[in-house]
Amino acid sequence: MLFDLYSDWNEKINVISRKDIDNLYTNHVLHSLGIAKVQQFMAGSDILDVGTGGGFPGIPLAILFPDVKFHLVDSIGKKITVVKEVSTALGLKNVKAEQARAEQLKGEYDFIVSRAVTRIKEFHQWIHNKTKDKSIHERDNGILYLKGGDLDEELNELKKPYQLNNLSDYFKEEFFETKKVVYVPL
Ligand SMILES: C[S@@+](CC[C@H](N)C(=O)[O-])C[C@H]1O[C@@H](n2cnc3c(N)ncnc32)[C@H](O)[C@@H]1O
């Protein structure tokens, strides 16, 4: 179902690199769900996905957590068109997709998730004031960012506390060897 939807939409509006569409489930769906290995979202919580592109990590997480509200934003309207179409076709009632720049958003969230949008320092500057004061989860509200490769320089320039979670602890596929979820409390 997801594969057919994304293959069709990807023909019209490129949201996943064309050579990567065959790896949709591992490289995009499972990778997105890696966030859930690190943090289970409580029913009623609010999650923002910044720079969602075609809906990653937001759509797989919204499928997994039907009682959690997901706000998926991207600055490019046609990407949001894909997210809305996919979300409607899947019958997801917990997804709001909107064309917006992260810096201009007004809402408050429990967690802010993202993948492949910008360096963590800049990301932090965009959204540091967008979490709710009170946490309903065990950990503080904050950022859960999917990152890969060598992160030392990027994390050094952040100059904030963070926690690294290796997705290779949860998934055996080679793709996850260097993949991490970076948690930054806000
Ligand atoms: C490389 S894509 C990643 C898309 C998706 N997160 C994924 O992993 O498949 C980066 C996305 O971030 C969006 N973006 C970049 N800066 C943004 C901003 N300031 N606010 C909202 N979206 C932004 C771009 O339009 C683009 O769709």
Automatic annotation (TrEMBL):
One of its GO terms (molecular function) is rRNA (guanine-N7-)-methyltransferase activity. Its main location: cytoplasm. CDD domains: AdoMet_MTases. GO terms for cellular component: cytosol. Its EC number is 2.1.1.-. SUPFAM superfamilies: S-adenosyl-L-methionine-dependent methyltransferases. Gene3D superfamilies: Vaccinia Virus protein VP39 (3.40.50.150). The keyword Transferase applies. It is found in: Cytoplasm. The keyword Iron-sulfur does not apply. Keywords: Cytoplasm, Methyltransferase, rRNA processing, S-adenosyl-L-methionine, Transferase. Specifically methylates the N7 position of a guanine in 16S rRNA. PANTHER family: S-ADENOSYL-L-METHIONINE-DEPENDENT METHYLTRANSFERASES SUPERFAMILY PROTEIN (PTHR31760:SF0). Belongs to the methyltransferase superfamily. RNA methyltransferase RsmG family. This is Ribosomal RNA small subunit methyltransferase G. It comes from Chryseotalea sanaruensis. The gene is rsmG.
